[in-house]
Specification:
Blueprint: E1 7-11, H1 27-35, H2 74-82, E2 89-92, H3 104-123, E3 129-133, H4 140-150, E4 156-161, H5 167-171, E5 187-190
Parallel strand pairs: 1-2, 2-3, 3-4, 4-5
Helix pairs in contact: 3-4
Length: about 230
């Protein structure tokens, strides 16, 4: 008999498409999404960032019958995970790329839209679900504002960054946000290991790279050399 609850702290739900967020965006940002779209720091502008043989790094049976990407169908998630394994609490980590936008204000609008969409389509439909707050972490002030707004929902339990902060933090051109989630039991968590204390996060290289030093490779073996015949 189980005496403790089962908590899955890393459940990746997914926005089925950009169009799903349109009802949660102000008119200005709806137009921006439709005309400009996503501009991120990642090299993968469109398509999947994983080999075609394992799109989204997901099992073939993880794709829901509804036709959306893995993690986009709550009923399918219930059947495959929540009910199948008797999960008492599942913490959602939606990795929609709101936090990676080069345009901070647009990233903040997307982060708020992701939260509001998640509340309506996930948190309000299953009491076992909790949510990580998506924040535009390249802009500390906007991130803090979204934390204050989204943490008001009782199912918001932490902030989750999908990757480490980018170049502006490393160069010191913007300050780190000292704000932390203020909801009950909220915490901050990064999907990437932080750099050692006193060191800046790594910065993606831009422009031409310096030439790498030549490697000293061992000489190819002599096919006519036979140690058994008395060779040195």
């Amino acid at each position: 008999m189980r005496t403790h609850g089962l908590i899955d702290c890393d459940v990746h739900n997914a926005v089925p498409s950009d169009a799903a967020l349109l009802p949660y965006l102000p008119a200005r940002w709806r137009r921006h999404l439709e005309l400009v779209g996503s501009r991120t720091y990642s090299p993968f502008a469109k398509g999947y960032a994983y080999p075609k043989a394992a799109r989204f790094a997901s099992r073939h049976d993880a794709w829901p019958p509804s036709g959306g990407p893995p993690g986009s169908d709550l009923e399918f998630m219930r059947a495959q995970l929540l009910d199948a394994y008797g999960v008492d609490v599942a913490v959602l980590n939606c990795l929609y790329r709101a936090s990676e936008q080069r345009y901070d204000a647009y990233g903040a609008a997307l982060a708020a839209a992701v939260h509001d969409w998640q509340v309506e389509h996930w948190l309000e439909r299953d009491p076992r679900l909790r949510a990580s707050i998506t924040v535009p972490f390249e802009s500390p002030d906007l991130a803090a504002a979204e934390i204050d707004r989204a943490a008001a929902h009782p199912a918001s339990c932490r902030c989750c960054c999908s990757r480490g902060p980018g170049s502006r933090w490393a160069r010191g051109t913007t300050g780190r946000s000292t704000r932390r989630p203020r909801g009950p039991g909220c915490r901050w968590e990064s999907m990437q290991r932080p750099p050692p204390r006193g060191r800046s996060p790594p910065v993606a290289r831009r422009g031409p790279r310096s030439a790498a030093p030549a490697l000293a490779l061992p000489a190819a073996p002599d096919p006519h050399h036979h140690p058994a015949d008395g060779g040195a």
